[in-house]
Amino acid sequence: MLNIALPKGRLGEKVYAMFAASGFECPEVLGDSRKLVFENQETGVRYFWVKPSDVSVYVERGAADIGVAGKDIIDEYMPDVYEVLDLKTGNCRMCVAAKKGFRSNADVTLRVATKFSNIARRYYASLGREIDIIHLNGSIELAPVLGMSDVIVDIVETGKTLKENGLEVTETIMPISARLIANKASFEFKRDDVLRVIKGLRRQVEAQK
Amino acid sequence: MAEKYNLKGEEKILFRLRSLYSSFGYRTYKMSRFEEYDLYARNKDFLVSTNIITFNDTDGNLMALKPDVTLSIVRSVREQPGSVSRICYGENVYRVSSSSGTFREIMQAGLECIGDVGLLELCEVATLAQKSLKAIPGQSILTVSHLGIVESLLERIPESLRAEAVTDLASRNVSTLESLCAANPDYSEALSRIAALAMIGGTTQEVLSKLEAMDVDKKSLSELRAIVDVLGPKGVRIDFSILDGMKYYNGIVFRGYVQGVPVPVISGGQYDKLMKRMKKNCKAIGFAVYLDSLERLVQEVADLDVDVVVKYSDKDDMGKVLATAQRLRDGGKTVVALKNVPDSLRYGQLVEAGGEDNA
């Protein structure tokens, strides 16, 4: 039985469709039930929905053998897992954004509001820029609007939220997409099953092109 | 023999490992709990975690609670041309746990083989790693790699791409390696070979044949073949994602997994580069067994806290109570004498010191 952690939400549903199309269906998953774990003996899979930022924890600790996590989560938490496939879905960018017309003064510490403290810290360290991190858990866009921060580091999909709040992207840190991750021990002990999933999903990814 | 004593699961394994290593002529190395901080500061990348507990000794020297055993052993070993030191240990080390972010005392066993190390010693240590895995209950897999093979491919790409290629290979990230390949057509041949290593699969013999066709370093490949042949096909895999500590390790490297534990329980390899950094003119190979990761795997929950409770009151003759308890102990039972028996205590039999039995 292969344990698979899926991220709750739209991305998870899209990714489940890819699993199902690869022969790992478990129709119950998409139902309205309050169940937490969904199992299909025939296809040998057990799915569970978890908070997107927790997928890597479940996989690293072996509660899930494989899972789907955004590249943003992987780079932020750096879990000790294998990142075996780029699913090329859930595409967006990790960006720096600021109020329109903001000009950074290299002379003063830059105040950065973000959910992704590690990514932001690494990015500015690579530029040799001193920053003050303001860790927030949501509504990041509010910080520069209220003057609490100079810039934000956040995920940008369409840029609509930024625009509506008078913000704009100033730098792109990296592109983001959903990745299939695997626990290192599961990769050894359930190798054939994991490879079957990778092969199936790879075919789906190629068909999307 | 270990089973005879009332040992915890990890202690039983440590006991078995010690007798295994001593049967191969390894001598136990007992060291001080502290070491000069400088030793670790100079070799920080070699450590699993770089956070170290430090304190000032009475003479003002900055000391550290050992976060690692290998560095201390390497430092203490005397070089004698042509000879090999075989040293094993079972020690507590002090590291920051990656999950809690706080310091933990961690029990670690392992061995180091230092000196004029040749193919025989490499094979012997790899075999000992395999045998160590078998000392742990449950199915196990030893994964083996040769860094010489990976390095021979990395040398063919420019320095600027190497760090990315190593990170991707270590996480079996074929997708990114393929993108790297497409973005750097001049080096696509070497990069596509690195991508092929990331997911190389099949039996060890199949992998060796695939490597044969890939034009990798011949000497490294023949060393890998010799070791894999000694280990046999069962529970052994070739795995090129083992890339941590490339500054220190060279040649053969391996990891051991046990079913039910989500992280490697054994990690090690040949570390001639570390020897050179520590100005020792010899070779070395060794590994560590992380006994702390086995805690949950081998924990045995006893049904009973104690076999017999001898219940007494202040009126009872104390000499008689003690004698009753001792008589039961002599019969092989665990016995506790109590005035009040707590509700939470799980016991097999209750003996009233006054005389009556209550099962």
Q: Can you tell me about this structure?
A:
With about 210 residues, chain A is of the alpha/beta class. A six-stranded mixed sheet of chain A has the order 2-3-1-4-11-5. Chain A has a five-stranded mixed sheet with strand order 8-7-9-6-10. In chain A, strand 2 and strand 3 form a beta hairpin. The model of chain A has no long low-confidence stretch (mean pLDDT about 95). Chain B is about 35% helix and about 25% strand. Chain B has three domains: about 180 residues, Bira Bifunctional Protein, Domain 2 (BirA Bifunctional Protein, domain 2, 2-Layer Sandwich); about 110 residues, BirA Bifunctional Protein, domain 2, CATH 3.30.930; about 55 residues, no CATH class. Chain B has an eight-stranded mixed sheet, sandwiched between helices. With about 350 residues, chain B is α/β, with parallel strands linked by helices. In chain B, strand 3 and strand 4 form a beta hairpin. Chain B contains 13 helices and 15 strands. Classes of the chains: A alpha/beta (about 210), B alpha/beta (about 350).
Cα distance spanning the termini of chain B:
32 Å
Q: Which segments of chain A are poorly predicted (pLDDT under 50) over 5 or more consecutive residues?
A: none
Specify the oligomeric state. heterodimer
Strand order of the largest sheet of chain A: 2-3-1-4-11-5
Helix/strand/pairing category of chain B: alpha/beta
Short description:
The complex is a heterodimer of chains A (209) and B (359). Chain A has helices at residues 10-21, 55-60, 71-77, 117-127, 142-145, 160-164, 184-189, 191-208; strands at residues 2-7, 37-40, 45-50, 66-70, 82-86, 92-99, 110-114, 131-135, 151-156, 167-176, 178-182.
